[in-house]
Design brief:
Layout: H1 10-13, H2 18-29, H3 57-71, H4 85-96, H5 104-111, E1 130-133, H6 137-148, E2 153-157, H7 165-168, H8 200-213, E3 220-222, E4 224-232, E5 237-244, E6 250-255, E7 257-260, E8 283-285, E9 299-303, H9 307-316, E10 322-326, E11 333-334, H10 345-353, H11 357-368, H12 392-408, H13 416-419, E12 431-432, H14 436-440, E13 445-448, E14 452-455, E15 459-462, E16 467-469, E17 472-475, E18 490-491, H15 498-502, H16 537-557, E19 560-565, H17 567-581, H18 610-617, E20 625-629, H19 635-643
Parallel strand pairs: 1-2, 1-7, 2-3, 4-18, 8-17, 9-10, 9-17, 10-13, 11-12
Antiparallel strand pairs: 4-5, 5-6, 14-15, 15-16, 19-20
Length: about 650
């Protein structure tokens, strides 16, 4: 028995996702009849699947009765706790009600913890030390792996606490738009999320608990920023100049491996307007939310209608006297009923106590919020309506969301033409409705689509000459996700700077990780690794962390001094990225997106399926790198010399 103290009653099981319970029965009993009719769940393509899974009442009762029988005397150890790849593949397909391609099995096994972790690196080997810049999601993911591997890792964080964007963004309503059981680390599940889409505070607390549990906090110095890092050719180290944020004191430290983990969402894109310095009230970006701002009874202007605004505006609407929202382009919005729902506390007991429940529930979320959407973002050359959509299914999404927007604005029909986008769905990230259109219909909320001309002492003036008098101006214009070279000041081989390597607004790196001219440097959440079609940043960070950790292990075991990606490898990879993007929605001429640079390149979202990117990060392509060794040859180096005779 696993833990007889945890009792799961029938009432609790009635809150469960039945397709997940079926998989749990396979594990608990070892009986594969649970993978056959009448216990095969119905296919459900919705973002949040119906927990009834298409079963009738009799089948539902049979599933719950069987689970109750298994746990009647306590929760037993599973008969099948490590399904082989063939069985797991079958279970995945039955679970989803569709034939899952076999290429997803290895990735799912890793995510479910079915791949044995390698032991720590032998301390007698020359294990390189690692300095990570940034203690957000990416930094925590990598540090956790490296600490487990026995690597001397240090983190610096410019803020007073960890969490990155989840520390900095404190605007009302801030939360995640990916379900929490997927927006979390697979190796550190949280069974008791309060909501399916949790608020900022809960996500930050989760990251803090992971960092403490994995020893990351002990390795992190807060209030420290990197001023500059220079590659030292002589001793093959990075000389990193650091500065204490409060005192201004600077000093230099050395590290063999440097990892910038500053992310896409660390630098606000702060739109500026003529005359804004004359405004007499508070004016600020949402990512720099002042703790003392008072919105109660105020006239508030919100500039921008992206993801942040969609969370903020409905949250503060009850507090303000009047609100005007300035929109440049409308957004495609999808209703998700569970977005504001709380998780039944009884369900948390299933995640905590019923073997395999959490892992299968996460698999369902990862599939629906993962690769299932990418094919709908690809251009169909035969599609007769390329001006409005990419293909037939993409057009169906357009129709569905248009109907939702239209029905939501029945009381304000004059807003419909301003709220239905002209560009194809997914040209900008699909947003989840947080009561946005309901809020726009309220009498004290106005939508302004005329461009802003200037800001005066009294408020905001449009190009039509209309003055909107307000007390507070909130700028919700997102983040700079293209100028990634501005995050870190680097000078690599021969003193060439990162801004020179990447040219103006054209960042490029092999796998978004390895940069030309930058030895022993690994970038996390770099170019073309943003989650554009779906996925979880937690998943991406952990995938990249596994790849970088494999490099660190290889450097130790093979006594490698330096690794440096070759220019032609990055060029081939970038050409592939650009070629794939040419067929995707972000290059659609009618799409106004910050994903695309002024030069017409897409340098933020990833064009690959998650499984393709994961597969590439599982191996190290030595031919793509110039590798030098420490003075004493390694076994691998000697073997290579022997092979070449």
């Amino acid at each position: 028995m696993i833990d007889p103290a945890h009792a799961i009653d029938r009432e609790t099981l009635e809150t469960a996702d039945l397709r997940v319970l079926v998989m749990c029965l396979v594990h608990l009993t070892g009986d594969l009849r649970w993978l056959e009719a009448p216990f095969t769940p119905a296919r459900d393509v919705r973002l949040v699947a119906d927990p009834r899974a298409g079963f009738d009442d009799a089948t539902r009762d049979a599933i719950i009765d069987a689970v109750m029988e298994q746990i009647s005397n306590g929760i037993p150890a599973p008969v099948i706790d490590r399904p082989d790849p063939e069985l797991l593949h079958r279970m995945m397909s039955v679970f989803l009600g569709e034939n899952v391609p076999g290429e997803y099995v290895a990735m799912t096994m890793a995510d479910m913890g079915l791949v044995e972790r390698r032991p720590p690196i032998d301390a007698a080997l020359p294990v390189p030390d690692v300095l990570i810049v940034g203690a957000g999601v990416s930094g925590i993911a990598l540090a956790s792996r490296l600490i487990a591997d026995g690597v001397n890792v240090r983190l610096i964080e410019r803020n007073a606490d960890l969490g990155g964007t989840w520390f900095e963004n404190r605007y009302p309503g801030c939360g995640v738009d990916t379900p929490n059981h997927f927006y979390s680390f697979s190796w550190s599940p949280k069974p008791d999320w309060s909501r399916f889409f949790s608020p900022r505070e809960e996500i930050h607390d989760y990251l803090a608990s992971v960092a403490e549990e994995r020893g990351v906090l002990d390795r992190t110095r807060f209030g420290i920023e990197m001023v500059r890092a220079e590659w030292n050719e002589g001793d093959a180290h990075w000389a990193v100049t650091l500065r204490h944020v409060d005192s201004g004191e600077t000093w230099t430290e050395s590290t063999r491996v440097l990892v910038p983990a500053t992310g896409h969402f660390s630098e606000p894109h702060r739109a500026h307007f003529d005359g804004e310095e004359s405004f007499t009230g508070p004016i600020f970006h949402t990512a720099r939310w002042p703790g003392d701002v008072d919105l109660d009874g105020q006239r508030v202007a919100v500039i921008g209608t992206g993801a942040t605004s969609m969370q903020l505006v409905p949250t503060i609407a009850d507090r303000v006297a009047h609100m005007i929202v300035f929109q440049r382009t409308p957004q495609w919005v999808r209703p998700v009923a569970e977005y504001r729902d709380t998780v039944d506390p009884r369900t948390a007991e299933l995640f905590a106590s019923l073997p395999w429940y959490g892992r299968w529930y996460r698999f369902g979320q990862s599939w629906r919020y993962g690769d299932g959407l990418l094919r709908f973002l690809k251009r169909d050359p035969e599609w007769p309506h390329p001006e409005r959509s990419m293909n037939r299914i993409n057009d169906r999404h357009r129709v569905e969301m248009t109907e939702f927007i239209t029905s939501s604005l029945e009381s304000r029909p004059e807003l419909i033409e301003h709220c239905v986008p002209s560009y194809p769905p997914f040209g900008k990230r699909i947003l989840i409705d947080n009561g946005w259109f309901e809020t726009l219909c309220r009498p004290h909320v106005d939508l302004e689509v005329t461009p802003i001309a200037r800001i005066t002492e009294e408020g905001v003036v449009t190009t039509a000459g209309t003055l909107h008098e307000v007390d507070v101006i909130i700028v919700a214009t997102g983040f700079d996700v293209v100028s990634l070279d501005r995050r870190v000041n680097l000078a690599g081989r021969s003193g060439v700077g990162l801004s020179d390597v990447w040219e103006p607004r054209d960042p490029r790196a092999l796998l978004g990780i390895s940069v030309v001219g930058m030895p022993n440097l690994f970038v996390m959440y770099g170019p073309n690794t943003n989650m554009g079609h779906g996925g979880s940043v937690m998943w991406m960070s952990d995938t990249q962390a596994a790849h970088i950790a494999a490099w660190i292990r290889k450097m130790a075991e093979e006594r490698i001094d330096t690794v440096e990606v070759q220019p032609d490898a990055v060029e081939r990879y970038t050409d592939e990225v650009d070629r794939l993007h040419d067929e995707l929605v972000w290059m659609h001429p009618g799409t106004p997106t910050y994903y695309r640079t002024e030069e017409g390149r897409v340098r933020s979202p990833m064009p690959f399926r998650l499984v393709d990117y994961w597969s590439r990060t599982q191996t190290i392509d030595e031919d793509a790198f110039v590798i030098t060794y420490l003075s004493e040859p390694s076994h691998a180096e000697l073997a290579k010399e022997h092979r070449h005779g």
